[in-house]
Amino acid sequence: xxxxxxxxxxxxxxxxxxxCTEPVELHAFVDPPRGHVPYAARIVCSSLPGMYTxxxxxxxxxxxxxHELDVIVDRLEWEARVTWTDSRQVRVENVLAEGxxxxxxxxxxxxxxxxxxxxxxxxxxxxxxxxxxxxxxxxPESGVVYDGAWRVVSIRVxxxxxxxxxxxxxxxxxxxxxEEGTYHALFHGQLVDNACLVYPLYTAExxxxxxxxxxxxxxxxxxxxxxxxxxxxGVEFPEQTAAIxxxxxxxxxxxxxxxxxxxxxxxxxxxxxxxxxxHHDNPSLFKNAAFFVSSQADSFxxxxxxxxxxxxxxxxxxxxxxxENAEAAGKRRSSSCFGY
Length: 340
What we know:
Elements: H1 2-19, E1 28-31, E2 34-35, E3 39-45, E4 51-55, E5 61-64, E6 68-73, E7 77-85, E8 90-99, E9 105-106, E10 110-111, E11 119-120, E12 126-129, E13 144-145, E14 150-159, E15 163-164, E16 167-168, E17 173-174, E18 184-187, E19 190-193, E20 195-198, E21 235-236, E22 240-250, E23 255-264, E24 284-285, E25 292-295, E26 300-303, E27 317-320, H2 323-328, E28 332-333
Parallel strand pairs: 2-8, 11-23, 21-24, 26-28
Antiparallel strand pairs: 1-3, 3-6, 4-5, 4-7, 7-8, 9-13, 10-12, 12-20, 14-22, 15-16, 17-20, 18-19, 22-23, 25-26, 25-27
């Protein structure tokens, strides 16, 4: 009898053990986890009986009994999801991979196509070119170095002596023939990509198009031969340092910026003027220059020394040489800062 009881107990224990299952653990990873995108890799999972579903970043899903899957890592931050099931249990694991692609390297631009020119002359037509030029007989390497597609987002030229209410009054930038979001410039009959034109120390009034008036005929820009649109006509500047500031965007949407100091030669009242210019005999320094400030959204205009100017963000400021020009653009004189 005792032997029968022992056999029954053993049978019950075996049955109980048979009903217990160890928890299944799913481990998964990308091999290799880092590389220059796009690169070939594979997802490797724990080898388990059942089915795997691989959900990839592009929205596709692959179901397989195989615990490995070949993939192409095609973005800098790549993530996939693995779901395993044996019809009774489900396990989920995310896997990550990282692109090691370097961001663009921003070198000095070329000025007027000359790799050795690094001085700007006031009011002189000037090409700033960020296209990549390898080093060689023509000069040292310059421009944007990158192994993929990229574009210029913005180029600014800021002279340190042109400060209004704590913010630099940037030079006007031109990209003829003008196209929305495109930086290129027609220079001496040639269209140069990744470039712009500037007339150093020149800041123009803003035309109804929202773009600056041009100092000469440029495709895509208003040119007013009857009315002076140079906000700083008759203003003299000493030699100073300016910054050429560029922002570029690569094919992964990353933005890289750089600032390059450059010398700007001294100007005189002869710049954008001459013997017949009414300002020629009475030049002024920038700190004494009389001009007016507003913004596209503001119906009023202000003298440059009005406190209200400090409340206008630098990127939104627009300038006028005269009260007449401001009023012709539809602006009204602010009564708070005019003493007349």
